[in-house]
Write a structure and sequence with these properties.
379 residues, 6-stranded mixed sheet, binds zinc ion, 13 helices, alpha/beta, binds pyridoxal-5'-phosphate
């Protein structure tokens, strides 16, 4: 249904086009693929649909409903809170079936993989994306190989193994894990959450839900923990779909949050660099965003510029404090998620500014490391 002129894969580098149902995960030239897709919205139908991310069915490029792999996930609560007397909206994306927003991307990507008839996939992750891909592969009956760095938290590794995925623990950095996985994927299908464009067709539903939950309005600002940018880019794509349909009149300011121990996007943006700086591998509390070489960094910076956003960094101490503060309000979150709360604490908010931030991951994901007060190892 979506294989026509307006709907295709295209290469970021050489602009070559492919059908949406082509089962390649990168361009013949090696470049990264993106999706051009005419998302539409049928408001009456949306309002009458189940409260899941699949209520935006016409905006998600899956042909056949029979291929949808779903636990009725999504439409997570958007709650009104006060932190340090400043008001904001918090979106509870830790409530997904695997404990993080990554299920948004996994549901759509694994549905597409089922649609393509692919039987076996490769993915690499610092834990959460691997868990999400493994869970949805389990539901779909697809063979799943997950590559993680040796230092990945016990809770995440245990979760991946219990879903029945084949786990490959790789010595060395997060980047070394990614390199080994990419090599294995030459002979398989790479269900990479940061490379595969269908993952972003799932994370974009984060924006649709915010829009609907704010009574079909956009917030002024969204603060997003950002490593590879799977939620950051997805949020942009979602608001862009709404803008293209004249359902909103602006895209909110998108602010990327990084750890001050692993801040390649911050450095590139503030110093106007053309290439990624080289970042030393250091122990880092926000393990989910400890990415030294985000492949989609140029895309992320273009989005920051287009939305008049910027990048903020936070320290481990600030993250720790934010994690404890928000827990005393009843939300137990993983340190990576607490980074956006730490950023909000020092964010210079204007009067009546409407700010949204996600809780990207559940605190139970990292209890083991919090108990041991261990620092996580950045890639
Ligand atoms: C994956 C993840 C993020 C965002 O990471 P990206 O690398 O930007 O995709 C944020 N928080 C948590 C808990 C995550 O698992
Ligand atoms: Zn190309």
């Amino acid at each position: 249904m979506f294989n026509d002129e307006n709907n295709h894969l295209f290469c970021q580098r050489c602009h070559q086009k492919y059908l949406l149902n082509d089962n390649r995960w990168k361009c013949a030239c090696g470049g990264m693929l993106d999706i051009s897709f005419n998302a539409t919205f049928n408001l009456e139908k949306i309002k009458a649909s189940k409260p899941t991310l699949w209520r935006y069915r016409e905006a998600i490029p899956i042909d056949n409903d029979d291929n949808i792999i779903s636990f009725d996930e999504g439409f997570t609560p958007l709650i009104d809170m006060k932190i340090n007397n400043k008001r904001l909206f918090i979106k509870l994306d830790q409530l997904f079936i695997t404990g993080t927003y990554k299920d948004r991307g996994a549901s759509v990507l694994i549905s597409k993989i089922k649609e393509l008839g692919i039987q076996k996939i490769i993915e690499d992750s610092s834990g959460n994306a691997g868990s999400a891909i493994a869970a949805y592969c389990a539901k779909a009956g697809i063979d799943c190989n997950i590559y993680v760095p040796e230092s990945t938290s016990v809770a995440k590794v245990t979760q991946i193994e219990n879903y029945g995925a084949i786990l490959h623990k790789i010595a060395g950095s997060r980047k070394q894990t990614a390199d080994v996985a990419a090599k294995a994927a030459e002979f398989s299908y790479y269900a990479s959450h940061y490379r595969n464009p269908f993952f972003f067709q799932g994370t974009k539903t984060f924006a649709f839900e915010i829009w609907e939950q704010l009574n079909f309005n956009v917030p002024d600002t969204v603060l997003i923990p950002t490593g590879n940018g799977t939620l950051f880019i997805g949020t942009y794509l979602g608001f862009k779909d709404l803008l293209n349909n004249n359902l909103i009149n602006k895209i909110p300011k998108l602010v990327a949050i990084q750890s001050d121990k692993c801040d390649p996007i911050y450095q590139m943006f503030t110093q106007n660099l053309n290439e990624l700086p080289s970042i030393d591998q250091k122990p880092i509390l926000a393990e989910g965003i400890g990415i030294t070489n985000p492949l989609r960094v140029k895309q992320i910076i273009d989005i920051i510029k287009e939305t008049s956003g910027y990048v903020m960094t936070v320290s481990d101490d600030e993250i720790n404090k934010a994690l404890k503060d928000i827990a005393t309000q009843g939300l137990f979150v993983e340190p990576t998620s607490a980074s956006s709360i730490a950023a909000f604490n020092k964010y210079n908010m204007s009067k009546n500014e409407i700010i949204v931030l996600p809780i990207t991951g559940h605190g139970l994901k990292t209890t083991d490391k919090l108990v041991k007060k261990e620092l996580f190892t950045a890639n």
